[in-house]
Task: structure prediction
Amino acid sequence: MTRTLDITDVTCPMTWVKTKLELERMGAGEELAVRCREGEALENVPRRAREAGHDVRVEGTTIRIVRA
Amino acid sequence: MSSNSRRNFLRDLAGSVRDVAAAAQSVTPEEPPEELGPEIEPLADTRVERYSRQLVLPEWSEAAQQRLGAASVLVVGAGALGSPVAMYLAGAGVGRLGIVDADDVELSNLHRQLLHFTPDLGLPKAHSAAAKLGFLNPEVAVEPYQVRLDAGNAAGLLEGADLVVDCSDSFETRYAVNAACCAARIPLVEAGVLGTSGLVMGIRPGETACYRCAFPAPPPDAPSCATAGVLGPAAGVVGSLQALEALKLLTGVGEPLLDAFLQVDLALLTFLRVNVERRADCPDCGTAYA
Result:
């Protein structure tokens, strides 16, 4: 099951903070679909998620993260 | 505003801050949605924002933040070390902070004791500290104790604490805190500062060397702050290290300074880690846990 998270209403660093906390609440292998705005979040969130060891795929303004 | 009315104003303000803090504590948190799991209740948005710069750390987590929020810490002394310790712990989101100090704010305190300001002169330090900590973070339940900790009342003051941070300024108090923490098996962060040097030591009683294992007796003719002096920033550095070690012990994040003390010389900017071992014959922790 894919979880969804909307971070279109926040800016850096809350974009990653909210994503990170949501990932902490999930189990390994679960997918999180993060809806964000163009710009900062699309650059930072996938980068930070990859640094944290998760699998990341970006589709438009949706960031799909599979929790490590 | 006269000096008296300023003091009354601060007292009233401190009272209302404590009321706000008490009200914040009594609010029933919303039930977490089921899919988030029963073990961790998600942080409210305002808390996520307040603690965002530590939550964003790879090592930190919502679980670490929750552990901090559930923790009760007793800070012994609201002076040069106690000020940064209490401020950083309140800022970080420790749930309950007990502040023990029997003294009143004096003019000679203000160059190094960050929690107290000139209008606080003559006020009890415990209450002056509690007021500022309430402004800093109303989510923290701050309890001032205007009393000098000694061997007779230590056990009672420590009751319910998950951690003690000893920011006192005498060997007598330090040994009393260490003995009481060993007896109750409450983790402790010890520190002292004088001139431009200081010392920090973390202790898990019954598991790691205690303060008396490292220092079985006070040094003869130990000077005090009053006679030897102390630089404000030196106390700030040592108190900050003490707060850092407290956060490590409370959250499990990072590697705490255990079975060792850190000797800090801020005139030369040197940090020396000295390993110590538990003593079987330690009167505080040796026999009770042998």
Notes: Chain A touches chain B through twelve residues (CB under 8 Å). The mean pLDDT of chain A is 96. The radius of gyration of chain A is 10 Å. The helical segments of chain A are 14-24, 40-51.
